[in-house]
User: Fold these one by one.
Assistant:
Number 1:
Amino acid sequence: MLYRLLLPGPIVDLSEVRVLEWHGAPGTQFNPGDLVVELDTHKAVVEMRASSKTVLRKILIEAGEWQRVGEPLAIVSDSADEPLPERAEDLPQSSATYEMV
Amino acid sequence: MSAEPVLTRRVFFREAICLAVRETLDAEPNAIVMGQDVGAFGGSYKEFYGLFERFGPARVRDTPVAEAAMVGLGVGAAAAGLRTLVSITYMDFVLLALDPLVNYAAKARFKTGGQIRVPMVVKLTAGAKGQGVAHSQSLESWLMSVPGLRVVAPSNVADAYGLMRSALQADGPVVYVDHKRLFPTSGPLNASGHEVPFGLAAVSRPGRHATIVTHSYMVCVALAACDQLAVSGIDCEVIDLRSLAPLDLATVCTSVSKTGALLTLEEGQVVCGIGAEIAYQVQARLGPVRVSRLGAVPAPVSSNPVLEAASLPDAARVADAVRRLLTEG
């Protein structure tokens, strides 16, 4: 199953954040609790961690780029061999945990 | 969190401040930062993030909760040859430090025939954002009338950087007023080293029918009001003062000469406010014009969010004030 990894929200006062660092390249498998990506906000770093076993497939917003809250950051999947679709818009949302640090 | 905001052209408001401070500390070994939580914590709004690690505790110094002592030390250190940036998170608490700021920092050059200069920046965060009567005030008009003090207040990322650069180049005390509601904003920051000179206002939005003169976060409110007014065909010009002392009356008067109507807008009180000063100065130069001023209602800012919102100008109230100015003024 493929998913869109969305930028979680709402974040108080904030409409856009900047991707600070991806902790893996496409193909990297994450286990529950693994750090996937760190986000720079106006006041803190937000960590997004995998909530289940998941594979990073395609990064949509690279480090240093900005994205609006609620919009996708990447495409992820349950296993590494599922083919990527032409259109990502129709994919369901992935659930990831995230916390301010 | 990025310690290298220079790598991206779009930055958060806090990063613009941080970059200007960092560049100054890099260039000037005598420059230091002092304040509560400016050290390992990185500043109350993370606007000093990374400076403690880069420059160490001798140059990025956490202080006790003692504003009079903080500014007093800042004045003395600046007079003795350092360049100091003193950060007081809530502008309300500068009241504890008015004696060293007003009686020493602002007057040292005059008292000593120019022999002692006080290159000190006092950075204050103004504005209401849910924190109640004594953490929400906008008191910059109180400081505008002190000879020897310069007062600046950015409304956007580029000016946050450029005004801090200029403040940290100045040879006398500068009060740098930012705003709680500006910290979540981001925007383009073009050239490193870009300075915004004091006493130079900016036209944030050109318009024909009325001039709104304002500063800091109220620029955002004014621009939102302009969008509302544009729907009904009213085209307003917005002047962002950027510098409150000195004031750029030439830019204001050029605009009012064109539009013939002036609304002053501030988050603080209107009695003896910035608008009162501008309204007088503009009419002394241009003769009678339609003028109105808008600010907070004469009440403390409540910690109740409904009452807080009720006490301050918002886009709808600004738009109403412009309509009244044009129909009744």
Number 2:
Amino acid sequence: MTSSLDTSFRLFPEQASTMARQVDHLFYYLLGVLIFFTLAIMIAVIYLAVRYRRRDDNEFPAEDVQNFKLGIIWTISPFFFMLVMFFWGASLYGQMMRPPENTIVINVVGKQWMWKIQHPEGVREINELHVPIGQPIKLMLASQDVIHSFFIPAFRIKHDVVPGSFAMEWFIASKPGTYHLFCSQYCGTEHAEMIGHVVAMEPGDYAAWLSGVPKDTPPAAAGAQLFVSWGCNACHGERAPTMAGLYMTKVPLDNGSSVIADDDYLRESIIEPSAKVVAGYPAIMPSYRGQLSEEQLMALVAFIKSQGASAAPSGVRTTPSTRPVNGQSPDYLPNFPPARQPVPAPSP
Amino acid sequence: MGMNPALNPIVSPITPAPPGSEGAVARHPNYLNVKHTVRSWLLTTDHKRIGILYLFSITLFFFIGGGAATLIRLNLLTPSGLIVDGADYNKLFTIHGVVMVWFFLIPSIPATMGNFVIPLMIGAKDLAFPKINLLSWYLFVFSGIFAFIMITLGGADTGWTFYTPYSTAFSNNYVTLTVCAVFINGFSSILTGLNFIVTVHKMRCPGMTWFRMPLFLWSLYATSVVMVLATPILAITLLLVGIEHIFGVGIFDPKLGGDPILFQHMFWFYSHPAVYIMVLPGMGVVSELVTCFSRKRIFGYEFIAFSSVAIALVGFLVWAHHMFVAGISVYSASVFSLLSFIVAIPSSVKVFDWTATMYKGSVKLDTPMLCALGFIGLFTLGGLTGVMLATLGMDVHMHDTYFVIAHFHYIMVGGTVMAYFGGLHYWWPKATGRMYSEVWGRVTVCIIFLGFNLTFFPQFILGYLGMPRRYHSYPPEFQVYNVLSTAGASILAVGYLLPFAYLPWSLRWGKPAGNNPWRATGLEWQTASPPPEHNFEVTPVVTEEAYAYHLRKAQNGASIAVTSAGVAPVTVVIGPTPEN
């Protein structure tokens, strides 16, 4: 650990990511609007209550004050403050939900009641996450039991980790230090114990830390082993689509639509292969629901991703099929060649 | 038509009871003294008695829920948790949530005050379906027994939100019993809503047009629509949770091929509108209180009436703002964020209009008015922090932290409970015929206001610092705010206990109230206190809009009453129905 947790009394949380600063600016605007309206209402209430206090118990004011125009004005005017909030908030949210290109992907699996973390180099941590500052980090999140939520207050980010799907959050740490990591979605008896630390380090310190800790098999390599040990390579590449250059490309489906081969699609195609069948291939792949752990799924995705950019895939080598399948020409086959836009398959 | 002077409501509505007439209030035949047996209470179809039955039932649950809250706050005095471990703490907040939401807040104002005053306000003898009204109460009691058994057996630990797959596949305590309790409770709500809707449509007395109705009725009408349309969704959702929990049929559990997010959509499709079930009636009460204690016609009647309807309708379209970090798409999140801002507008309109009502009025800070002004302040803060939470990039950090806890307690406790106390004090003289102690009432409201803010304001700071909700222990640097919050809670508890002394005291020793102690407009004040069994001796006729305080001046100030002969006054005719 580079520095210990700052436990001093504070009114506002520490700003330790690039996002934290931006979120706080939005917060100050919202706080300003809140203080303005709360004070305005309170002052008006107190002033009117005093100014028009009842002086005689038989007092009945004769005037009925109504003002339609004023009613319309204060029905519409708050909306302008809110439009600013809306667009500002939505643009920040859009940034939070879309990671930049050059991220380091760290796998995080939540279970009752711990966070299991693996770096791309293979280093494993539990309830502790070491990251370099200034580098976009993407956390790939999964849960193996109930819903958890990965929350780093100093970075102003959180995302629920819903079992049965991957989730993602990303950040660029901006200040070295040790910060709280909380599970913020109620997950059972020891929910409050599902906490840990995020240690943000200077890149040099991080490299030193990384080289000084024991390493497990990196996720991509573990995925390559799984790909063979589960016999995936028996079909994929020959009777089934190849993994080479697949990641994040557009895949035509047998119902005429298409899908981007992202993390969620790959996961679904392992768990529920019949949900989205690639055009030109028979729907013969069995479901692997309940047979692969979240970590194994993440490893497989990491492996497929590692096959992505390179034209000559390493790892498990497969020969792309050139045989027509189901009477379709090889041109319809996905990712072959990857650069080409697939022609829409005829609808069934 | 002959008029019994003892029952003729317009003979002496504002004449103070003559000295030495203590006890006289109870002498005229009224809904309280016509029958005395337990049976006459348990089989009553009188909306007023059913309102009182609800008052007792929900008060009991308020104390069960409050007891759980007390233990929660005590536990959070120290970072490691003072009195209970995680398992027990989780049961405490589940009990607190389930009891407070379904057994106190949802029935609070509608089932007690709504039941009591709706027929009085529209000049009817009872609700449209008096027996169904009694059935509602029995369903409530029945569901309450389930809840009580659940608590005594050891409780459940799902939280009031029953999130799957935790509730269906992982929680192994009394989930089924809790779900049953809430399921049955829902039918009580649906029947009450149905009863109110039909009553408002069909039972209004001659002259009581929609735009002459007191705004409390508009808000209860909007509430009832939400109750009738949203509660069945909850029933279905909980049924599915029960089916998955008991039989293992895959609906929400991904291991069985289900979808946990589907549960959240279904749950919030009910539970967000349910927030408006809880707060709309409170807004209605505040509209009554602000006009009465300012002696001014409400500013912008139509704006307030339609804002209730708008809240009820738009309230159905904002549910996914509870799911901004659950993995919904950026586009759907944006739509729900925008709609959530829009639903805030009718609420803000109400706040502006209530405030403006005091302008050039005659403001008296009696207990109910203090509650109403407290509501305006606390609701404003609660509403504006809600707007912060509707802001997408902001919610990501604040979601599931104490900021959210503070926000909805400002609405639910600072708003609804404050309005509930305001309404209780306002209609207390009508229901009992006696005045409570004004001094104690005002002291109590001030204690509640201070205690409330001390309890919940620090939680905003805690939340922004990042303390997650539902934690039985926490990092030590959060302790200062937790201690402040617990200190506030103990003050709040005193505030909530005080009415148990002075309100019952007033039943015996309070000053007789007379028909109209506040000199309010509104039909409920034109009949005796306590009202006779069938509310009005003769069907009233309404000839003016609600809250026509400005017309009172022309009638020589206090004189709402006209001639003792009962000749039609300018304002409210209580006499033979002209036609049909």
